[in-house]
Specification:
single chain, about 260 residues, Glycerol-3-phosphate (1)-acyltransferase, 7-stranded mixed β-sheet, 8 helices, alpha/beta
Length: about 260
């Protein structure tokens, strides 16, 4: 608890200080603003390791090619956006429109040309998202989307939205699924943080041009299968983090399936 409180203080203090201190970069070239975003992400990850004792590893990083790709990542925690900014070369994340209204943070997100979508905007909002994503991909950037649209608790049943299918079809790029178990160590809707090692896994790419149903099935099977495996790996570790009810339920289901 004490480490969680100290980290929260350090995280918000350094984030505000860096956003204010580097706000002049909003008038600089976009690459400078992206460098500032990466610096803030690196500081946050360092503070998490030093104060809380939470580190992370990336498996399959070598699979990522240079240039434009579509990245579809599991989303369990606010931590995911931090690490993807630091991990990828020049990511354009699909973000909810409301984040653009946050002073300075939203200005930076707009300056680095993140892709904003109004989640209640219907088909028109999805078409605008696809158009904006196409512009960023044409500039050689990685387009990143969380297929479920919002954070899901570890082990929760999947709830994939149509946005990822629209991007896959419109961009014509290979899609790289990403699995993780961050929600065990940085839970959503909680200020508590837990020590351990978060695992991010870059999975084998899905080639462009597949039929919609085949792509959707392959994507969900890849992400959910790997996320289940990472959930089990954390639970079987020497010092497992607390398991939320959704994770315990999923682990029980996995144990039953393994016996059958």
């Amino acid at each position: 608890m004490i480490r969680s409180i100290l980290y929260a203080i350090a995280f918000y203090a350094t984030t505000v200080a860096m956003l204010l201190g580097l706000s002049w970069m909003l008038l600089a070239p976009r690459s400078w603003a992206m460098a500032a975003a990466k610096a803030q992400a690196s500081v946050s990850l360092w503070l998490q390791r030093v104060i809380v004792g939470t580190d992370f590893i990336v498996r399959g990083r070598e699979k990522l090619p240079p240039g434009a790709i579509l990245v579809a990542a599991k989303h369990q925690s606010a931590w995911d956006t931090i690490v993807l900014v630091q991990l990828l070369h020049d990511p354009a994340l699909v973000m909810k429109q409301e984040l653009k209204r946050i002073p300075i943070y939203g200005w930076f997100a707009a300056r680095v040309k993140m892709i904003f979508v109004r989640r209640t905007g219907g088909p028109g909002a999805l078409r605008r998202m696809a158009r904006d994503a196409g512009e960023q991909a044409a500039a050689g950037r990685e387009v990143v989307i969380f297929p479920e649209g919002t954070r899901r608790a570890p082990g929760a049943p999947p709830d994939y939205k149509p946005g990822v299918i629209m991007l896959y079809e419109s961009l014509g790029l290979p899609c790289y699924p990403v699995a993780l178990n961050s929600g065990l160590y940085w839970p959503r809707r909680s200020w508590r943080r837990y020590p351990g090692t978060i695992i991010i896994e870059i999975l084998d790419p899905i080639p462009p041009g597949l039929p919609r149903k085949e792509f959707s099935s392959r994507l969900q099977d890849a992400i959910e299968g790997a996320s289940d495996r990472l959930l089990g790996e954390a639970a079987d570790g020497a010092n497992p983090p607390p398991m939320p009810e959704s994770a315990r339920t999923r682990l029980d289901e996995m144990a039953v399936n393994a016996k059958n």
